[in-house]
Structure formats: structure tokens, C-alpha cells
Amino acid sequence: MFSLLLLMLLAHSRWVATANITNGYSSIVKNIFILSGQSNMSGRGGVFNQTTLAGMVNLTWDGVVPPECQPNPSIFRLSSGLTWIKAQEPLHKDIDVNKTCGVGPGMSFANTLKKDPNIGVIGLVPCAIGGTNVTQWARGGWLYNEMIRRTKAALQGGGTIRGMLWYQGESDAINLEDAQLYKGRLKKFFKHVRKDLQLPTLPIIQVALATAPGPYMEVIRKAQLGIKLPNVRSVDAKGLPIGPDLLHLTTPAQVQLGQMLADAFLQTQKVLLPSLD
């Protein structure tokens, strides 16, 4: 199934690879944030309405956008065609193309940051793909390369990469070996991102799992909460409301998570931490 998705995304990427940020918004986006991981970052808030067609269960988004996630004239997102457009939910609708996307934490995060008068125009770079294992985000793989490509494209009109939001790990909780190796793989991923973006102290805010489809969630959570790297902070999603599928956060939970991520990011701005080797 993932191989089919990969082929679809590769074809899609070949089409957008020649696109450039040429619209009038590119020069005003100053604060760039990467949104990466799997489905709870991509956003499944409100995606619970099921219909059955030809024996297939289809999920639909309820279309409910809470006030905290409403569009803001100073918040943009990088589309799949590498164009800055005004951000609105679902942020990942043209990125996580094989799934039904709903509300994620990105808009709540950005709108919370906008309460700070010192925060200028925000640009969000959605990169999350549902159902992905951390090994599929390893350096040199398609997901990793696409994330780096999109992030570098976001810089074409100027601006600064201010941070990365990372919510992933559910898929690694299925297999014991994956769970046991998760911490080392995640640290290597963070270090590679910083090196390839030439940002050795890039703030990274990761989310400790709230749910998982496998039995090793606590092993993953321990690894996430045990990461000790400068300017890497963790927010704990455990206890936030989850939907009837028992896997994805509800819309209100995503709103709260976005606010938690914003608070954690702002904390990284208050302390000057040493660079990584």
C-alpha cells in the first residue's frame, strides 16, 4: 500500500519540481515553520463521518473550523506546487493526498504565535504523511528529501526557518524492535535535518504520543521524552481527547495541542542554547 502511495507522490513531485515561488506573497513570509510527521500532524480532527461505497469505507471531514484555526491574513502555507497561499484548514489536503485530512495543530499553533506582537508573517510548510514509520523519514529517503526540498524552496523569497514541529511514532509502536530502536533513529533524524538545513540549533518541538495502534506506545513515549538535544522540546499529548477511532486527536484536542506547541516554541526563544556538534 505504501509503495502505491509512494509512486503517486513521486509522480506528483515530478510535476511540482519545476514550480517556483513566484507569487506576490513570497517576499513577505518571514517566519517559516516545518510541519512534519504522520497523521496526527497532518490532521484528522473532524474526520469521523463514515460512508460506505462499493464495500469501501470512506471517511469525510465535517468541515468544522474552530475560531482558533480560522485563517489569518498574516499566516500562509506552502502548497504542493511550492506556492505561498493563505493558510486554511485542512493544511495538508494537497500533501497527505491518499488520506482524508481535517484539522491538525498547525493553524492553532500559528494563530497562538500571532498573539505575540513581535511575531511577523508566518509561513507553514506542511510535510506530514499519515501511516509513516520513522525509518521512512531517514536521510536519503523520499519523505526526507521532499521535506528538505520543500523547506529550501520556502526560503526562495527570503525569510527564516524558525522551527520544526514533529508528531510521529504511532507506526513504530507496532513492532518491539522498531520501538526499541526509535530513540536512536529519532536523534539521528533531528541531527540530519539540522545539518542539511545548516541550522545547528534549529528549534524542534516534538509531540509525545497520545495514542498508538500497537502495544509499545510507552516504549516510544519514553524514547521521545528522553531525547536530550539542545533546543529540542517535547509536549505531551497524552490525555488529550481522541476520536472514536481511538487513534486520532479530535478537533478540540488539536486546538489545544497547537497552543501547547506554540508555548513550547516561545520558551526556546527565551534561552540561548549551545550549538550542536
TrEMBL record:
Keyword annotations of the record: Hydrolase, Signal
Which InterPro entries is this protein grouped with?
A: Carb_Esterase_6 (IPR052940), SASA (IPR005181), SGNH_hydro_sf (IPR036514)
UniProt keyword annotation of Hydrolase present: yes
Molecular function terms from GO: hydrolase activity
Q: Which ranges carry the Sialate O-acetylesterase domain? A: 30-267
Q: Look up the domain of life of the source.
A: Eukaryota
- The region annotated as signal peptide is 1-18
Q: Does the keyword Metal-binding apply?
A: no
Q: What is this protein called?
A: Sialate O-acetylesterase domain-containing protein
